[in-house]
Amino acid sequence: MRNFHRSLLALAFSLAASLAALPAVQAQVSFERILNAEREPENWLSYSATLDNQRYSRLDSINTRNVAELELAWVWQARSLEKFEATPLVVDGILYTVQAPNDVVALDAATGRVFWTYHHEPSPLARTCCGRVNRGLAIVGDTLFMGTIDAHLLAIDAKSGALIWDTTVADAAENYSITMAPMVVRDKVMIGTAGGDFATRGQIAAFDVATGKELWRFHTIPAPGEPGNETWAGDSWKTGGAAVWNAGAYDPESNLGFWGTGNPQPDWDGRERRGDNLYSDSVVALDVDTGELAWHFQFTPHDELDYDSTQVPVLADIVWRGEPRRVMLWANRNGLMYVLDRVTGKFLFGKPYVEVNWMDGFDANGRPQRVPGMLPSPEGTLIRPHVHGAVNWAPPSFSPRTGLFYVSHWENSGIMAIEGQFPQPVGINRRQTAMGQVNLEPFFNNDDEAYGVVRAYDPDTLEPVWEFKMTDITWGGVLTTAGDLAFGGGREGYLLGLDARSGELLWRASLGGQISSAPMSYAVNGKQFIAIAAGSALFTFVLPER
Amino acid sequence: MKRFIPTLLLVLAVGAGSRVIAQHATAFDIEDGGRAFESTCAGCHGPDGNLIAGIDFRRGVFRRPLTDAEIVAIILRGIPNTPMPATPGMNEEQATQIVAYLRSLPETFTEPSTVGDAARGQAIFAGEGQCLDCHSVAGEGSRLGPDLSRIGLDRRAAEIELSLLDPDAEIQPTNRFVTVTPRRAEPVTGRLLNHDTFTVQLMLADERLQLFEKSELRDLAFVASPMPSYRGSLDAQALADVLSYLVSLRGDSLP
Questions:
Q1: What pairs with residue A407 in β-bridges?
Q2: Cα–chain-centroid distance for residue A288?
Q3: pTM of the full predicted structure?
Q4: Domains along chain B?
């Protein structure tokens, strides 16, 4: 009897084991799975793997001891010359990504071969400030979601690639667009509108995942009668920008969603929009059930330097200066790094992480104290960081293993001048604008004035623990892994494998095109992959077969 | 956010108050018009407005006398069946500012004091000047320095003159020279073609292309331009001759 039981048990185990080994166990992606995505590190179920945006992979078969052996697994070439900004999703062996501007592609994650492509033809009215790009998808159940550059939100069947519904989020003819990855919480998919360099008014809206019906809408600029509208002079609130164009985060304990907001518009000329311009350059915390504002924190009141705060919010439960805290870590475009209490929105600590000369301290609430005279002038004023900021949108990472916050950013400075009658940025020697028209090439006197880094910061002090310096600047994000690795890169087109504790370079690959995305990791049949988009292609790397 | 033109245009459109007449233009109008000229017109007319035969804005020379209003109309709507295109997206205020700028040019234009002879200049260029040791024109000479086949289109006379007299004054990033010192070899100097975190790519004096791993270098340093100054070594007339020759190089002999 006992032996018979044993045999049955053995049979059951072997069945379970063989089932587990099958790659094709493709269950629906419940919200429970997304919420607990750290339990299935072989998958990558939301923009930054987990809704806290830590962009940390619990896979460790690639680690500091063997990363030097990484070799190419496969390459997928997008038929697009736009910047490849999307982070893929991986669900049970299927990789989903976006071919810019708005084609969804389903690939076999082990081989890179294509199952299907869903093509969306954006309206000719679609207008983007900075490229017809897309940063990624969301999934729940068997449904993928994508925002489009003509400001639609699409639901697409993850198996067949067929369109399920198509909802207009905002009017492309009024310069609204969508470039960010949506976020799903339970039955809602949430997305924001880009277009904040044009006369628009930023929004975040929630839609029923099954039907596309709108459930709530939050305007990032309050209307007359709402608190905060008084921070906009005259009618400037109607066209004040404050767009939402990068992924949000979700905290299940408070049921709050967090999104960063963009610059007030016009970008460099605040004369017609006197006041703090709430909630531009802020993080807003919204009840995801109702869309009601729980709290906000404004990083740069009355911004005239284009310091979008659309960085990805990174949430962490850490012991901060000896006390358990639920924090939000934020390396802002304005050159300042922040630790916020994400329950209350309270400012805990902040300091410059690059050279900053437009402010010289914070008040108790985290409001920056401006340095008088650091404004555009007829003779030109050197401002650090310049309108490029210290970082743009590329996602950072937090490793719970090292407790460090990893940010890829750059040093730069430039001149704000009043040329003719209007403020505008110019190159450091005034011969050229600081924002090249095609490739955002900054203009500097010498090569020491601008460079990119990957840096690891201690959240207690916001001091760098190490840095890896690049010659060129970087638009790439960072991935950390349980193998104590940090992957990053930049415009030079190298993917870097760094020791997450020391910053030592352990491996690199020259990919021949700029990295305008962030690395991610997944596994198929127990084999770990590192994936990165560079140029027009998606590259994956694995350890060699033994 | 990242690009500024749309915002600038919007600001211009919102900010420009009353209509400006060229004859009553302010310094601001002329400055704004100059900027608009550089971005919209200089591609064909040249930075000095003298690249199209029969037209020389520096001297106020048009194909025929035109009123301000006629020039505004030409800027906005172009001239049918000619290469002069319409400028969609430009409004009348901006076109008027360009006219103000064009009308201001003859007041500041002065003829160069020494008139050069391009044929004599070419002989000096190929001879005692030894310019072809580093530069090339229409495929003749060295590839080490910048190709000058169309320098007359790319640079103004004053900029070329500055380079002849003070070669280090202004150097394009693509024309910089570096010296690299390998750990176990003699220093090598070459033109910096590219570099990144890990590597440097040079053209050496013998036109060889070579990559160096930065990790294998003891030192890497920018060096002054290898071009000599011709101040003193060529007299004023010879300099004017070379300048005339260089200004005349407009890529005509290129494929």
A1: A455
A2: 19
A3: 0.81
A4: 5-108 (1.10.760.10), 118-164+231-247 (1.10.760.10), 173-223 (2.30.30.520)
